[in-house]
């Protein structure tokens, strides 16, 4: 994934959104507000080990 | 249904301008040897062309008593503009060259001049610190002035804040409901989107690709396609001003070739320039460029009429919405669901630009 690119995919056949940060971290949520908050928290993504 | 966030507030609905950016002020064809005025981000700007065809832009207020220089009997004399009230006369750079009744022209007698670039049929004006203009990107819409493409275009005044139009254009699922019978079909609202934010380039992308969809009249009447279609809607928004919708229409199952060529599809580039006029009004520039039926005037007439109708449907809805939210108390809430993913990304990018 190119530097600085954030992607949110709406999974086909589902209501779930998958967010992927340019650092490779991923999350899923059913709320676009939560997805953007998680992505824009880079590098401190909530719940990232 | 997707769970919604009932606590989300309209933080992105601010009316504040994003400064130190280029905005579309006019189509190049609007500006000639007549004085022309347009307000951009709350600044009243005077435009005219010099004798050699260059566009100039300067404050539309005489430094003397603030008379609008676009107002008759103000007029051009060669490459100077003469104020119709007391005759203060300004050159193409905005510097006052003559005042009535005395030979000394006050050193401070100059109009604010604005950086201008004519590109892709638009006249772009820089709002903010002019020393930043040269290093600030002007996004491109090359199809508007390019061989092999035919363009219809217009501009509609919108009595609503610019952020409402951004919201509208980033979520095309509204086509199904607001623009049914023109560009909307059930598949638009039903098809999931992919949203990308390029933080470095400052661009929001929203892609909706329908593999098997009804062909709306806008496309069936212009392309001649009668059956079901493959319809791609790829949005590319470069905040704050330029929005592109790369639209691809083809019979179901017809895809681009491996080498990227795409001879069996119809391509339409829908361009919007979203230029704030005031905090509660917007210049809604729209253009539709196509790579088919290039010389067919009937197709041009149809697309111009249809797209203007669609734009006016948006204008009516957003004018109403502006009236509603302008009178809401602070802290009112809204609800966002999956279709809003792109619009939320645009809001956040605009907020960051505004805070710079």
UniProtKB/TrEMBL annotation, chain A:
<protein>
    <submittedName>
        <fullName>Uncharacterized protein</fullName>
    </submittedName>
</protein>
UniProtKB/TrEMBL annotation, chain B:
<keyword id="KW-0479">Metal-binding</keyword>
<dbReference type="InterPro" id="IPR036922">
    <property type="entry name" value="Rieske_2Fe-2S_sf"/>
</dbReference>
<feature type="domain" description="Rieske">
    <location>
        <begin position="22"/>
        <end position="125"/>
    </location>
</feature>
<dbReference type="GO" id="GO:0016705">
    <property type="term" value="F:oxidoreductase activity, acting on paired donors, with incorporation or reduction of molecular oxygen"/>
</dbReference>
<dbReference type="Pfam" id="PF00355">
    <property type="entry name" value="Rieske"/>
</dbReference>
<keyword id="KW-0411">Iron-sulfur</keyword>
<protein>
    <submittedName>
        <fullName>Vanillate O-demethylase monooxygenase subunit</fullName>
    </submittedName>
</protein>
<dbReference type="InterPro" id="IPR050584">
    <property type="entry name" value="Cholesterol_7-desaturase"/>
</dbReference>
<keyword id="KW-0489">Methyltransferase</keyword>
<dbReference type="GO" id="GO:0008168">
    <property type="term" value="F:methyltransferase activity"/>
</dbReference>
<dbReference type="InterPro" id="IPR017941">
    <property type="entry name" value="Rieske_2Fe-2S"/>
</dbReference>
<keyword id="KW-0001">2Fe-2S</keyword>
<dbReference type="GO" id="GO:0046872">
    <property type="term" value="F:metal ion binding"/>
</dbReference>
<keyword id="KW-0560">Oxidoreductase</keyword>
<keyword id="KW-0503">Monooxygenase</keyword>
<dbReference type="GO" id="GO:0004497">
    <property type="term" value="F:monooxygenase activity"/>
</dbReference>
<dbReference type="InterPro" id="IPR044043">
    <property type="entry name" value="VanA_C_cat"/>
</dbReference>
<keyword id="KW-0808">Transferase</keyword>
<dbReference type="GO" id="GO:0051537">
    <property type="term" value="F:2 iron, 2 sulfur cluster binding"/>
</dbReference>
<keyword id="KW-0408">Iron</keyword>
<dbReference type="GO" id="GO:0032259">
    <property type="term" value="P:methylation"/>
</dbReference>
<dbReference type="Pfam" id="PF19112">
    <property type="entry name" value="VanA_C"/>
</dbReference>
